[in-house]
Amino acid sequence: MPETSTAVAEVRQLDSGYSREARSLLYHAYRHEPSFAYLFESDRPGYEHRVRATVRELVKQHFLQDLPALGLFVEDRLVGIALIAPPQRRLDITESWAWRLRMVLSAGLRCTQRYLEYHQAVLACLPSDAVHVLPLLGVHPQFQGRHFGEQLLTALHQWCAVDETSQGVVLDTGNPRYLEFYKRQGYEEIGEIAVGPIREHVFFHPNPQVLLKAQA
Q: Whole-model pTM?
């Protein structure tokens, strides 16, 4: 996620009214990601449809469960987003049979199974139950390289830190371009899983309040 120039964006908490914009942004952010390419079989016709369908179902279920999301806006355009699963309200969307059925019908049985296996492998890396998890996080490709990724993560860390029971934030990526970026933002790698030929890296960012208490 190269960073070359600085611009200021506005952070807002999102609701289901932003569902369409969120789906479009996340589709563009994830369609070229190595992990998604494997999970949804980019070498087979219909790949973009499967990615769109998966993002649609994930965003739909997120807002159906009334889970929080932060958006980054530039001149009223949504350019970055983070879907957040807080520790006290983290309901595993993959346990919803309605969600699974919609996924099978839109993305296919094999891709749905691959996604479920990937999802469970990531959850197995969590350092504890008391963490915020980011199931989807992205900056629109047109706005990358302008420090929006940094701004989004800073706002995210501050938002999550209000919850004193949270130990921190967990995210994952299979894109080697982002590894050093996340480390610069204070993340440490806590796990690595195989997504087919892709090595998916799981990162943890401690809650600033927890660090301050530990140092006191």
A: 0.91
